[in-house]
# Entry
Amino acid sequence: MMKPSICIEMLYPGNTPEEKIEKIVKKGFYFLEFWGWKDKDLKALISTANKCGASFVNLSGQRKGDLINASTHPVIEKEIKESVSVAKKLGAHILMILSNELDEEGHVLHICESIPDETKRSNIVLGLRRLLNYIPNDFIITLEPLNTVLDHKGYYLNSMEDAVSIIEDVGDPRLRILCDFYHLAMMGEDPLSIVDQYFNFIGHIHIADYPGRHEPKTGNGQWKDVLLALQEKRYKGYVGFEFSPASDSDASLDSVHQLWEEVFGSVL
# Structure
């Protein structure tokens, strides 16, 4: 059965990661994820998670370098090797990969306009094949399409179709897609159609309502129907809730809890 995970990044602003974990667990969620690890105290994270009975499932595998630019692939390989080591310590087995490097505000740092799109795509395939040399068999790396209409202008990979095409070309079962329904919906893709058409390529899921990127029931997402569709497909992975609370973080997690109970009867 699929399980909910909570991304700690945008919740409880002003709190430390450890304080966030404690508050999230108090709301009834025990599976956690985050973005970069270099700005965090790993020993403190592990200690807090152990104390609370929580587990980490997903984190960024790469925050530097551009898959679209082959000259930066050595940078990404270094990032991946370090992230695999960190993930093992955390007990996580999913690493997120981006086509372009982003800054702390999510802006694309290098659009690489001088590189033709066809070459960018070839570079992504080449880079992913190289990265997979460092990925354990029980890990998956997830390539993430992002929206370019609002949050990440200039980002190369912005559609499920293109991501699937790349995954097929690489041809390795450890490589899947991070299906972020917020980003894809902002690009005009329908979440239910994505589940129906591309389910076999999905390795991890992110949910935030759209527009706004807030918790469920603040936008247009039909999340109950999406979760039921995933259940019908027998999805057994994690559904990550990665959102900025519309107002109060506790209330936003209550909304996630309510959604999950409406569909499955309980959170765990």
Summary: The chain is about 40% helix and 15% strand. The radius of gyration is 18 Å.
